[in-house]
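Page 47, continued from p. 46.
Same chain as before, 78 aa.
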Amino acid sequence: MRLNRRSAAKLLVAPALLAGPRIVSNANAALRDARVREQISALDYDIRGGTAGEFAAFVSLDISRHKRLAEDMGLAEE
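Result:
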């Protein structure tokens, strides 16, 4: 992760019955469109498509990194 970029996640969320393979495929296709990529990049975001499982893995890793950072800084949960 590059620290000079915004650390944020934006995602498309839909009910399980709606979020089928077609929706995921169309969303990922949109992220491959050059104009869409240009507009998102202009906001200083990295662009990643993927599946719900891949996003869950990303969030899990991000949580573990922040947890370790908080522990290293001596911060405790309240």
